[in-house]
Design a protein that fits this description.
Elements: H1 20-38, E1 56-67, E2 70-78, E3 88-94, E4 101-107, E5 118-125, E6 131-140, E7 150-159, E8 166-172, E9 180-189, E10 192-200, E11 206-213, E12 220-227, E13 235-245, E14 251-260, E15 276-281, E16 289-290, E17 295-296, E18 304-310, E19 316-321, H2 330-333, E20 338-339, E21 346-350, E22 356-360, E23 373-381, E24 386-390, E25 396-402, E26 411-418, E27 424-430, E28 435-442, E29 444-445, E30 450-454, E31 460-467, E32 470-477, E33 482-488, E34 490-491, E35 497-503, E36 507-516
Parallel strand pairs: 1-20
Antiparallel strand pairs: 1-2, 2-3, 3-4, 5-6, 6-7, 7-8, 9-10, 10-11, 11-12, 13-14, 14-15, 15-16, 15-17, 18-19, 19-21, 21-22, 23-36, 24-35, 25-31, 25-36, 26-27, 26-35, 27-28, 28-30, 29-34, 31-32, 32-33
Bound molecules: beta-D-fructofuranose (FRU).
Beta-D-fructofuranose binds next to β1, β5, β9, β13 and β18.
Length: about 525
C-alpha cells in the first residue's frame, strides 16, 4: 500500500497561533491522501447504507445541523490510516438524511490550540446565517501521548458556504484543575446560546459543565449542570442536552453522555465504551434534576458518542458511532484501508415512563430497492432444523414477528450473515435466560461475545438492518417495550444468507419481510 506521509509531517507551524495557510495546506494534504487511500479499500465489510469515510478511520459524529437546506454530518476522522490518529473532521451532507454526498475534509489540525487533534464538537446556524462549529482543540502535554495529561480548550470555526471553514481560535481556554475538558455541544435556549462540555473534575468526578453566551464569541461559565453519582466515573464524554415531550404532553430534558470508568453490572454497561442517558427537569438558572437513573441508549456491542440534531420538521434525530477503540477490528488488522461507521439516523421519543426510545428514521425505507420478499403466513421451524430464507443477499432491511406463545424451542431466531458451516450472527430468543440475544460466537471474524435484553412476555417484532459489516436490531415487545442492539458483524468469506433456527423444540414466526437496501451515496 502506498503510505501517505505520517501525520506529524504535515507542515503544522507551531510558532503561529492562527495559520490559515497551514489549514488549507493540511486540508489539501489530508484530502489528497484520503482519496489515494480509497483506491486501496477492500469492500468486503465496507458499509452500503451507513456513513463511513471514503478511506481511513472515523469515530464520533460531530457538528450535526441543518444549514442552507442541507443536513451536515461531520465526524472524527483520521484520513491517513484505518487507526485513530490526529483528528480531523470529515464531512458529508444530505437533503433528506437518507442519501448523502461526500464533502472535502472540513477541519484539520493547523493552529497551536488544536495541534494534536480537532476533537469532537457541534454545529449551529448563527444569527447572521453562518454555520458555526465548536470543537475541542487538543494537545498532549508532552507532545506525544496521554502519559503527562492533555491540554484541551474549546474552539470556534465558521463558514459561509458550509464547505470552507475559517478558524476563529479559542473561545474557552484551559480550565485549571480539570483533567479532561472536551466535546462542546452548543444549542439555543431562548435568548441565549448554551454549551454543555464534558469534564473530569479536580476530584476525578465525571461532570457536564454548562456555559452561556449571547454572541457565540464570549462564553461564561454558568454551573456544573450534572455530576454522575457513580464515584468510579471520572469523565463524561460527548454530552448532549435536549428537551422531549412525552405522549402525555409532559416536557423533560434528556442528558446523554458517555461515562468513562463505568463498571459492568450484570448484563448492563458491558462495553468498554457505554453511551447512556438520564431524564429530568431543568429550567434556565436552575439545576438539572434527574428523574431516572443512568440507562443505556442501545444494548449492542458498539454504540458510542451519540449526538443529536433537530430536523427541519422538529424531530430529534440521533447518530452514534459504532464505537470500538479497544480491540482492533478485522478491517484494521487485515489492512482493509478503512474502519469505523456511524449508525443509521434514529428518531428519538420519550415514553410516559421516561424511557428513551430510538428507531430508524422513517425515510430509511426509501433505500429499499425491491418489492419485499414476503411470507405473510406462519412459518414453523421443526426442532433442531435450520430453515434458509435466502442463500445470498447483500445489505438488507428485515422485519419478522416471533410468535413466542407457539414456540416450544429452548432457543430460536434469525441467523444473519449466514455463511458456510452455519456460521453467522444469531439473533435469538433464549427462553431459558428469558432474553433476546445477539450472539457473534460464530459470526466469522472479529470480536465475539453476545449482548442481550430482557424479554417481558408475548410476541416480539424485530426489525433487523444488516449491512456488510454490521447488524442493528430493533425489538418491540407485546407490552410496547422497545430496545435496540447495535453490533459490528464481520462475516466469513462466501455468500451471505439468512436462516431461521429452532433448537430443541419448534419455533414459530410470521410476517417475514425482507428488502434489499441500496447505497446512501449519490456519487
Ligand atoms: C469520544 C472521544 C471524544 C473526543 C474524541 C477524540 O469517542 O474520545 O471525547 O473528543 O473521541 O477522537
Amino acid at each position: 500500500m502506498n503510505t501517505p506521509p505520517p501525520p506529524n509531517n504535515r507542515g503544522i507551524d507551531k510558532r503561529k497561533d492562527r495559520t490559515v495557510d497551514s489549514l488549507e495546506t493540511n486540508l489539501a494534504t489530508a484530502t489528497a491522501a484520503n482519496a489515494q487511500l480509497s483506491h486501496e479499500i477492500n469492500p468486503r465489510w465496507y458499509p452500503a447504507f451507513h456513513i463511513a469515510a471514503q478511506a481511513g478511520w472515523i469515530n464520533d459524529p460531530n457538528g450535526l445541523c441543518y444549514f442552507n437546506d442541507r443536513y451536515h454530518v461531520f465526524f472524527q476522522h483520521h484520513p491517513y490510516s484505518a487507526h485513530w490518529g490526529p483528528m480531523h473532521w470529515g464531512h458529508v451532507t444530505s437533503r433528506d438524511l437518507v442519501h448523502f454526498h461526500r464533502e472535502p475534509i472540513a477541519l484539520a489540525p493547523s493552529i497551536e490550540a488544536d495541534r494534536d487533534g480537532v476533537f469532537s464538537g457541534s454545529g449551529v446556524v448563527g444569527p447572521d446565517g453562518k454555520l458555526e462549529l465548536f470543537y475541542t482543540g487538543h494537545r498532549w502535554r508532552n507532545g506525544v501521548d496521554e502519559a503527562d495529561g492533555n491540554l484541551q480548550v474549546q474552539c470556534r470555526a465558521r463558514s459561509t458556504d458550509g464547505q470552507r471553514f475559517n478558524k476563529l481560535g479559542v473561545v474557552i481556554d484551559e480550565v485549571q484543575g480539570l483533567r479532561h475538558f472536551r466535546d462542546p455541544k452548543v444549542f439555543r435556549a431562548g435568548e441565549q446560546w448554551l454549551m454543555v462540555v464534558g469534564a473530569c473534575s479536580a476530584t476525578n468526578r465525571g461532570q457536564v459543565l454548562l456555559y452561556r453566551s449571547s454572541d457565540l464569541s464570549r462564553w461564561d461559565f454558568d454551573s456544573v449542570l450534572y455530576e454522575d453519582p457513580d464515584p468510579d466515573v471520572f469523565m463524561l464524554e460527548c454530552p448532549d442536552f435536549f428537551p422531549l415531550v412525552t405522549p402525555n404532553g409532559a416536557r423533560y430534558w434528556v442528558l446523554t453522555y458517555c461515562p468513562m470508568g463505568k463498571r459492568k453490572s450484570g448484563y448492563d454497561f458491558c462495553n468498554d465504551h457505554t453511551a447512556g442517558y438520564v431524564v429530568g427537569t431543568w429550567a434556565e438558572g436552575d439545576h438539572f434534576r434527574a428523574h431516572t437513573p443512568f440507562r443505556m441508549i442501545d444494548h449492542g456491542n458498539e454504540f458510542y458518542a451519540p449526538q443529536t440534531l433537530e430536523s427541519s420538521d422538529g424531530r430529534r434525530i440521533m447518530f452514534a458511532w459504532m464505537g470500538s477503540f479497544t480491540i482492533p477490528a478485522p478491517p484494521q488488522t487485515e489492512s482493509d484501508g478503512w474502519f469505523g461507521q456511524l449508525t443509521v439516523p434514529r428518531e428519538l421519543s420519550l415514553t410516559d415512563e421516561l424511557w428513551l426510545h430510538n428507531e430508524p428514521i422513517a425515510g430509511l425505507a426509501r433505500l429499499r430497492e425491491d418489492q419485499p420478499t414476503v411470507s405473510k403466513g406462519q412459518l414453523a421451524v421443526p426442532p433442531n432444523e435450520l430453515h434458509s430464507l435466502c442463500r445470498e443477499i447483500g445489505p438488507f432491511d428485515m422485519s419478522i414477528t416471533v410468535d413466542r406463545d407457539r414456540c416450544t424451542a429452548e432457543r430460536y431466531g434469525v441467523l444473519v450473515h449466514h455463511t458456510y458451516a452455519d456460521r453467522g450472527t444469531y439473533i435469538a430468543v433464549d427462553e431459558q435466560q428469558g432474553r433476546l440475544v445477539v450472539d457473534r460466537r460464530t459470526t466469522g471474524l472479529g470480536n465475539g461475545g453476545y449482548r442481550s435484553i430482557p424479554l417481558t412476555g408475548g410476541a416480539l417484532t424485530l426489525r433487523i438492518l444488516v449491512d456488510n459489516g454490521s447488524v442493528e436490531v430493533f425489538c418491540t415487545q407485546a407490552d410496547g417495550t422497545t430496545a435496540s442492539l447495535t453490533s459490528y458483524s464481520f462475516p466469513s468469506e462466501g455468500s451471505r444468507g439468512v436462516a431461521l433456527l429452532a433448537e430443541s423444540g419448534e419455533a414459530a414466526f410470521s410476517d417475514v419481510r425482507m428488502h434489499r437496501l441500496g447505497s446512501i451515496w449519490d456519487r
